Amino acid sequence: MPYSHNQLERNGVMVDNYLAVLLFSFTTMITPGPNNIMIMSSGLNYGVRKSMPHYLGICLGFPAMVVAVGLGFDALFQEFPFLHEVIKVAGVLYLLYLAYHVAMAPVSNIGVVRRNPLTFLQAAVFQWVNPKAWIMATGAVAAYTTIDSDMFLQVVYITFAFFLATFPCIAIWLFLGTHLKKLLRNETHQRLFNVTMAILLVLSVIPVIIELASDYLA
Question: How far is CA 26 from CA 4, 170, 188, in A?
Fold first, then answer.
């Protein structure tokens, strides 16, 4: 049965708040981060068709992560904070590993690919070691939920907002990579692109490295 406007207000799901969630989700999804950089690199090196499993893994994997965080993982990490630290460290190491492979991607022939793109499962699981994904998920749940309202309903509408934002925002980066393919026929230019993407990937985790270092040195 559809909720009335009064019911939605009582559950904290007001129109202005929902628009704020939508704005937050679109803004965070379109700005550069590990997912965007990796899908753009995949679009360049593999094209749209071969990158679709990677694309769908992000688009479905991240909203699934938001649901899990909103409905219990956040409480779990508050109870056992070391688990979050373990994931952070694993995420940083994995992103540095990916940055190395992006930088070393073959450039002898842009039409010949020697490595396989990420699979759907790999891209979906990657969300759990993506520092930006954690910041977005926990930040949205913390900012746009209230303890005196229906938590399940609030998490659902936050997840739906990210679901709406993820598909077009990630697609923009994917198609940007495929269009860059036309401009990067030169091997030197392609190598420069790959190295630049690797550097951006490393820079995206610098704040997390600084946070971890400050925690351990405190």
Answer: 27, 10, 34
Tokens of 215: 């925690």
Residues 6+ apart with CB under 8 A from 160: 63
Predicted TM-score (pTM) of this structure? 0.70
User: Which residue has 């019911």 as its token pair?
Assistant: 7
Instruction: Decide: 66 and 140 in contact? Cβ < 8 Å.
Output: yes
Count how many residues are written for the chain.
218
pLDDT tens-digit map of 44-91: 888 899 999 999 999 999 999 999 888 876 676 667 777 767 766 776
pLDDT digit string, tens, across residues 111-150: 434 467 889 999 999 999 888 888 788 778 777 776 667 7
CA distances from 48 to 51, 88, 139, 162 (A): 5, 30, 31, 22
Q: How far apart are CA 99 and CA 196, in angstroms?
A: 10
The one-letter amino acid at 99 = A
Per-residue b or e along 68-89, where b marks 16 or more CB atoms closer than 10 Å to that residue's CB? bbbeebbeebeeeeeebeebbe
DSSP 8-state secondary structure symbol assigned to residue 129: G
Distance CA(84)–CA(74), nearest Å, equals 9
